[in-house]
Amino acid sequence: MDRIASVETYLVEVPLGKTYFTSNRPIERASQIMVKVATEDGVVGWGESHGSPLPQVASIIQDELAPLAIGENPLETERVWQKLFERTTARRGSRAEFSGASLPKGAGKPQTMAAIAGIDIALWDIAGKTLGAPVWRLLGGFRDRIPTYVTGGYYPAMGEPDPLEEEFATLVEGGWKAVKLKAGGVSPAEDAERARRVRETIGDDVELYIDASQGFSVREAIEVGRAYEDLGVVWFEEPVHWYDDITGLGLVADALRIPITSGESEYTKNGVRDLITRGKIQICNYDVTKSGGLTDGRKIAALLEAYHVEFSPHHAAHVQACLAAAIPNGKSVEMHADRDRDPLWFDLFSNKPRFEGGDLILDDTPGLGFDVDEDALARLGERYGG
């Protein structure tokens, strides 16, 4: 029986050509971790993690989790996942087997769950390649294409013009049928005006989403949300500050007709459960590359379906589409339209799903359905530990 033989971790970080401002932080670099898992028979799977700081996530993958995965059957994704996740809690006898400290040690949930995600996603890639089937089909195979939306409308630097009309007209001309605008970084009145400008530019036939990146108070979110209702906004994403993202979400959801979207800042199915039952979300944008991988992601997808919540995952469409297309409640996946904002999509991966008519098209390629350009990986990243 083929076993996991090795795990390699690569840190990738690329400066962007300009700074992209959300409500609460500047985005100046594209960064991620690539995890290469090989079996004794030479089958290679690639996983992807998004978390920071990169060296801390890489250390958890390579130093803490890889020794637990090596020697396991890569097709037993659930059993391996549970073995890795057990390291997040203290166990009897741990003093004899480990250092005596359980994860997350000095790390938190983001770093630990991102580390598990990297290995888990690579195992699903191996499973598909071993069985000769695409992962989207192994996970359910509901359809072979998934709608996309494109994120734009980041804030300009202070004092610079805000060319929303030009940006969103270009996106519509490029074939995008749904667009997302950043919000939460100025007053509710100013953000409402930005959304009005975008709606007038894209017309009524293109869906408009709003992402506040946890930028508003509950009162502000309700105020601006009522203006968004008049503009036909399809969803209002992460409207309230991080410290009130359960009860606060529920208050906003009760006050508005617009569906509330959240989940990318959650790390477990337990947290998503609370977003559904108490936060009253109607769309979930959980990110499997940040939080536990596809093994936990498929359970979250089923939980969402049971509560009539749609799934529209955050970022990394080449991975997330495998789950979103596999399930009946998959709504869409997020993309960025240009190399300036997402250079890794363009430069690091090849043979990706193609964009057609506003959808990503999935094919019969075994595994996750994309290749990693290892020359580009060597140029853009570095292997953890040398």
Key descriptive features of the protein:
386 residues, alpha/beta, four-stranded antiparallel beta sheet, 16 strands, single chain, Enolase-like, domain 1, TIM Barrel
- Helical fraction: 25-40%
Count of alpha/pi helices = 14
Main sheet record: 10 strands, mixed
> If you consult CATH, what is the topology of the largest domain?
TIM Barrel
> Which term fits the overall shape?
globular
Calculate Rg over CA atoms. Answer: 21 Å
The class by helix and strand makeup works out as alpha/beta
Q: Would you report the number of β strands?
A: 16
How do the SSEs run, as a string of H and E? EEEHHHHHEHEHEHEHEHEHEHEHEEEEHE
Overall domain count: 2
Mean pLDDT: 93
- Proportion of strand residues: 15-25%
CATH superfamily of the largest domain: Enolase-like C-terminal domain
Distance between the termini: 30 Å
Question: In the CATH classification, which architecture of the largest domain applies?
Answer: Alpha-Beta Barrel
CATH class of the largest domain: Alpha Beta
* Unreliable stretches: 92-101
Compile the SSE list and pairings.
Layout: E1 4-21, E2 26-39, E3 44-49, H1 54-69, H2 77-85, H3 94-97, H4 109-131, H5 135-138, E4 145-152, H6 164-173, E5 178-182, H7 188-202, E6 207-211, H8 218-230, E7 235-237, H9 247-255, E8 260-262, H10 269-277, E9 283-284, H11 293-306, E10 310-311, H12 317-324, E11 333-335, H13 343-347, E12 349-350, E13 354-356, E14 359-361, E15 371-372, H14 374-380, E16 381-383
Parallel strand pairs: 4-5, 4-11, 5-6, 6-7, 7-8, 8-9, 9-10
Antiparallel strand pairs: 1-2, 1-16, 2-3, 4-14, 12-15, 13-14
Helix pairs in contact: 1-4, 2-4, 6-7, 7-8, 8-9, 10-11
